[in-house]
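sorry for the late reply, my laptop died twice this morning and i had to redo everyting from scratch. anyway the thing you sent over, i finally got around to it. pasting the sequence first so we're on the same page, its 401 residues, then the predicted structure underneath. double check i copied it right bc i was rushing
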Amino acid sequence: MRDETGEIECDALVIGGGPAGLMAAGELSRAGHKVLLAEAKPSIGRKFLMAGKSGLNLTKVEDRETFLAAYGEAGAVLAPMLDAFGPDAVQEWAQGLGQPVFTGSTGRVFPEVMKASPLLRAWLRELAERGVETHTRWRWAGWNERSALFETPDGPVRVRAKATVLAMGGASWKRLGSDGLWAEVLAEKGISLAPFEPANAGICVDWSSHMAPYMGQPLKNVAFRSGAFMSRGEAVVSERGLEGGGIYSVSRGVREGGALTIDFLPDQSVEDVAESLSRPRGKTSLSNHLRKRLKLSPVEIALLNEFARPFPDAPMEFASRIKAVPVRHAGLRPMDEAISTAGGVAWRALDNTLMFREFPSVFCAGEMIDWEAPTGGYLLTACLATGRWAGRAASDWLSSR
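ok and here's the structure:
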């Protein structure tokens, strides 16, 4: 409702229409509060829908310690939120919206329809039935005293809310809404921020011409390592470099200055590989010898030629090279091409309810906060969990007053 000055009044304002914001709005409306949700883009959940195009990976089923370890040092802070809304709860939530799920062989959980759109439609319908008022094309422009300011197609709008949840995402995929411009507003307010950096990003490689026939070829059953990070995921050789889940999972190591290596035979020891290389090859070419003895694929042999020459003569040395092929690269792809970002609101700026220490009644959730995790269900689960946590905390705040 509007007061005599034309300012909109509500119990709770949620800024950001991604998973964290939608979850916060749901918790607030479920508690009976009047909620207004504002989204800068023309529609809700654009990044959520994009993620679902390749099969929406909702979460991952694994033991608690392994799951929390995926979040690195942030796992300790996120632990109570993920304990309250972890992999089991995510599955129950999706099924409650009429979307059956299944668990793949790697523990990853997907909707049976392998799409995000049916889940998002059911979610938005549920929020609408609870009375959540949604506005799109409303870009947050900061505060004027106690009122939130928005730039809208109909001109400036002011909203006065008793509690606010900020859930505006990180700084990647600007076209989908996560542009990180909110950081300038918070910085002016003195909020502690960590610089944005790409996370879950591809690797830039300046390929030689001999790699041209292998563009688009997949790498499977290999292991990537960089710094403290290792992944058995897959990747694709692209014109820009290396991309895919296996690379994304070690991109933090690359970002922090670690060397990137590929183990083409992660299930074999160096000794086993050396023994295979030691067998006589007669007039067989080295490429055919590698293909026959080690079962290396054409693209793997091409990558060996690209990065591992000159090949050592000693079988043990050559085996060690095959088990840790050094990748010459030019760093990560640009931040806007990354799936997610590190950086954002520093944990020290928030209390354990995700409320800003310097701004009572204002909460924060999702990728706005400085945490990161690999793809594979971890990102989405933490966005949902922090959104739920912030929504419940904001509801408790309202109820106590």
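The chain has two domains: 8-198+341-400, 203-326.
thats about all i looked at so far, will dig more tmrw
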